[in-house]
Amino acid sequence: YTASANAMLDVAVKNDAADRDALMATKNDEGRTVEEMVTEKSGQTGEKIELAYYARIEAPYCAAYVHFNKKLGTVLGFNKEVPAEVAHTVAMQATAMAPFRSRRLTAPPSD
């Protein structure tokens, strides 16, 4: 699973896919679309595999957290660099909230 997910991530980063639909239609270096890659992996494993959500984050500083079960994760964009421990904690708390979908959240800048 990890190798397949990383291959799809490489396609997303290399091609700067704007949204899920664009990513699903994007081809890798071998000419296969991400949609074909997902379908192939699903057929190999016999499990329903889907790329349910995808969003491109543009921010000066990003942080990520993947829960120990490897089923939930969060990527956050910050408007400036923050200490790694703070970014990790915020991402971990966002993951614990298990939001249904991503959305842009803004907080007022501190003085």
TrEMBL record:
<dbReference type="GO" id="GO:0003746">
    <property type="term" value="F:translation elongation factor activity"/>
</dbReference>
<protein>
    <submittedName>
        <fullName>Translation elongation factor Ts</fullName>
    </submittedName>
</protein>
<dbReference type="InterPro" id="IPR036402">
    <property type="entry name" value="EF-Ts_dimer_sf"/>
</dbReference>
<feature type="domain" description="Translation elongation factor EFTs/EF1B dimerisation">
    <location>
        <begin position="4"/>
        <end position="99"/>
    </location>
</feature>
<dbReference type="InterPro" id="IPR001816">
    <property type="entry name" value="Transl_elong_EFTs/EF1B"/>
</dbReference>
<dbReference type="Pfam" id="PF00889">
    <property type="entry name" value="EF_TS"/>
</dbReference>
<keyword id="KW-0648">Protein biosynthesis</keyword>
<dbReference type="InterPro" id="IPR014039">
    <property type="entry name" value="Transl_elong_EFTs/EF1B_dimer"/>
</dbReference>
<keyword id="KW-0251">Elongation factor</keyword>
